[in-house]
Write a structure and sequence with these properties.
7-stranded antiparallel beta sheet
């Protein structure tokens, strides 16, 4: 079984600056409390092929995660896939950004989750939890970006 969840946020900051904030996955802990630690490999600007390695806490368990950037089109689109081997993984995820006027940016984030082995039984629970949290997740992205990016 697999499925998708998504969240949206309208951020009161210019699109190019929001893109730069989101492109640096090391900012993920600012809006995703499940991310305990994250690093970028190589430690250079994000591009296709960049890998983000993280330790996350899901359902009380710590797991190692590794995501590879598969598409990078500044300032509108980022795509990734999870390359780590976990029971529930992200087949594809991404950000889509568009300007909404007055220096504001609409951000859509999505992840398509797949279950593997025992994860086939767990992926439905993971999707339900992610969908339930999607509005709050979008609000956390908005808050983090607006704190990190000074207003013009």
């Amino acid at each position: 079984m697999s499925g998708q969840f998504e969240a949206t946020a309208e951020i009161d900051r210019p699109m190019d600056e929001v893109f730069a904030f989101l492109a640096d996955g090391r900012n993920d802990p600012e809006f995703s409390p499940r991310v305990l630690r994250i690093e970028r490999v190589p430690d250079a600007p994000t591009a296709v092929g960049t890998v983000f390695r993280s330790t996350v806490k899901d359902a009380g368990m710590k797991t190692a995660r590794e995501f590879r950037i598969t598409e990078f089109q500044a300032p509108t689109r980022i795509r990734w896939t999870e390359v780590s081997k976990n029971s529930v993984t992200v087949r594809e995820g991404g950000y889509d950004l568009e300007p909404t006027g007055d220096g504001r940016t609409l951000v859509r984030i999505f992840n398509v989750l797949d279950g593997h082995g025992l994860g086939r039984l767990l992926v439905g629970l993971a999707l339900a939890a992610a969908r339930k949290d999607s509005d709050a997740f979008g609000a956390r992205i908005k808050r983090a970006a607006e704190v990190a990016i000074p207003p013009r």
